[in-house]
Write a sequence for this structure.
């Protein structure tokens, strides 16, 4: 009988959230680059704002490539990257609120980021990433291998 790998529903929800969040951000960015006047020149200029925007883009693309496969394979470095990505996003949400004064959507995103950071710091999630799934070896194979040694 094979051992079934446990895949917590929270991990699945987290992966779905990251994918939806990243794809929505990339569509939002593409929309702004194409249709908002002056956004492309700001994005391509050399300023603090453009550097922060480029960091956001790079972290978002990396999160799509790192987090889902890393979480499925139980890699702890993927959890650490997710913590960094969510912390950066939470600080970005606070900075956006301070700069623009728009509080509704960014505050909601900030709360979601903080909740997911708290989820990733829970002991059950740490155990999920610390535990390596093992296979069950039938006792007949083990005893016959021990006799041949």
């Amino acid at each position: 009988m094979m051992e079934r790998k446990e895949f917590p529903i929270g991990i699945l929800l987290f992966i779905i959230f990251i994918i939806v969040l990243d794809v929505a951000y990339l569509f939002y960015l593409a929309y702004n680059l194409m249709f908002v006047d002056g956004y492309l020149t700001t994005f391509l200029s050399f300023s603090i704002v453009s550097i922060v925007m480029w960091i956001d883009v790079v972290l978002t693309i990396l999160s799509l490539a790192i987090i889902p496969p890393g979480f499925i394979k139980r890699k702890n470095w993927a959890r650490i990257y997710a913590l960094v990505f969510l912390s950066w996003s939470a600080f970005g949400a606070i900075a956006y609120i301070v700069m623009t004064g728009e509080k509704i959507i960014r505050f909601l995103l900030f709360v979601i980021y903080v909740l997911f950071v708290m989820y990733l710091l829970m002991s059950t999630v740490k155990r999920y990433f610390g535990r390596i799934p093992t296979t069950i070896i039938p006792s007949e194979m083990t005893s016959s291998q021990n006799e041949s040694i």
Notes: The chain has one domain: 14-130. The first helix runs from residue 9 to 35. The chain has seven helices and no strands. Residues 14-130 form one domain.
